[in-house]
């Protein structure tokens, strides 16, 4: 029986198309024509021996074989890039200081640190998990080289964007989050109980602004300095909180749009900021791994099964 050898370039186009929701956009990203990417996908289906896509409304969704192939494609592309990084960076040394949002620390950080450490064993990483204000302040103070932050477009961050020291990573949707233990209904005379971060919080402000525009009365039932505290309070039914659907513990769940009469929430951009537009090679290498890991995580842990912009192969 002949051995099947998948083309890494085709796998990259497949993964990129799924991440971007369009193979036309993927063609631009990978530097190929749309017809060339279509040919790559058809060849991939021939090698798999099964269709990767199915009709889903006006677009395309993944078949069971497609779902399996996407998981392996991500791993193969990651391993390819890790090998390239390792071969080119065997002599890299020094420190890289990385800051991450708590939402992505548990799910993304182990993968990022592991991949980077295998590729560059002589480079040490100092990681900090914190909220937006702390991360941007430390970046400004020169205490971090990289920071994954919510893009609030303040003056300092805007200046870095102009200087080319940032990368737009993803735009996760915000969701109302609660549990079946919540003792509140829209018809009650009580304001909606909220569980929020203490102090300034951009995500919390988005939620309360949306409630104010919808004319829904609310009160702060509990504040917490940590994400774990928000999950615990929401699980206990003390109130509803708001966050992305990524990394939720099994004790809470996202609420369906319109549940409890709650308004829709916007998406919020995630940006990877560098302390300088001319970063050292270890910083650039780590930045590339962080961007790839977060994009992969945010695209697979939400409903991204529909792909527009490409006809069935």
From TrEMBL:
Residues of the signal peptide: none
Q: Which UniProt keywords apply?
A: DNA-binding, Transcription, Transcription regulation
- Residue ranges occupied by any HTH lysR-type domain in the UniProt entry: 6-63
One short Pfam name that applies is: HTH_1
Q: Which InterPro entries match?
A: LTTR, LysR_HTH_N, LysR_subst-bd, WH-like_DNA-bd_sf, WH_DNA-bd_sf
Q: Does the keyword Calcium apply?
A: no
In terms of domain of life, where is this protein from?
A: Bacteria
Q: Name one GO molecular function term.
A: DNA binding
Q: Which PANTHER family match?
A: HTH-TYPE TRANSCRIPTIONAL REGULATOR LRHA-RELATED, TRANSCRIPTIONAL REGULATOR
Q: Which family, according to the similarity comment? A: Belongs to the LysR transcriptional regulatory family.
| Protein name, as recorded | LysR family transcriptional regulator
């Amino acid at each position: 029986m002949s051995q099947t050898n998948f083309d890494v370039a085709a796998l990259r186009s497949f993964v990129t198309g799924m991440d971007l929701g369009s193979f036309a956009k993927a063609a631009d990203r990978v530097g190929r024509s749309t017809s060339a990417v279509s040919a790559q996908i058809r060849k991939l289906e021939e090698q798999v021996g099964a269709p990767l896509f199915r009709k889903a409304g006006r677009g395309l969704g993944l078949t069971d074989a497609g779902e399996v192939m996407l998981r392996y494609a991500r791993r193969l592309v990651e391993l390819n890039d890790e090998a390239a990084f390792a071969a080119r960076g065997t002599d890299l040394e020094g420190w890289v200081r990385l800051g991450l949002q708590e939402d992505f620390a548990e799910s993304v950080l182990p993968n990022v640190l592991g991949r980077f450490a295998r590729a560059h064993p002589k480079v040490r990483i100092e990681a900090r998990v914190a909220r937006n204000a702390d991360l941007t302040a430390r970046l400004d103070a020169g205490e971090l080289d990289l920071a994954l932050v919510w893009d609030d477009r303040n003056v300092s961050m805007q200046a870095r964007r102009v200087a080319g020291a940032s990368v737009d990573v993803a735009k996760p949707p915000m969701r109302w989050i609660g549990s079946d233990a919540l003792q509140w209904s829209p018809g009650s005379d009580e304001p909606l109980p909220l569980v929020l971060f203490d102090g300034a919080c951009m995500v919390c402000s988005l939620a309360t602004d949306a409630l104010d525009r919808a004319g829904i009365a609310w009160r702060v039932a509990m504040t917490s300095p940590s994400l774990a505290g928000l999950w615990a309070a929401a699980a206990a039914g003390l109130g509803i909180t708001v966050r992305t659907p990524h990394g939720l513990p099994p004790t809470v769940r996202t609420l369906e749009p319109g549940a409890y009469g709650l308004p829709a929430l916007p998406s919020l951009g995630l940006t990877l900021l560098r302390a300088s537009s001319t970063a050292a090679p270890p910083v650039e290498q780590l930045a590339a791994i962080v961007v790839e890991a977060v994009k992969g995580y945010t695209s697979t842990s939400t409903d991204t099964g529909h792909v527009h912009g490409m006809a069935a192969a």
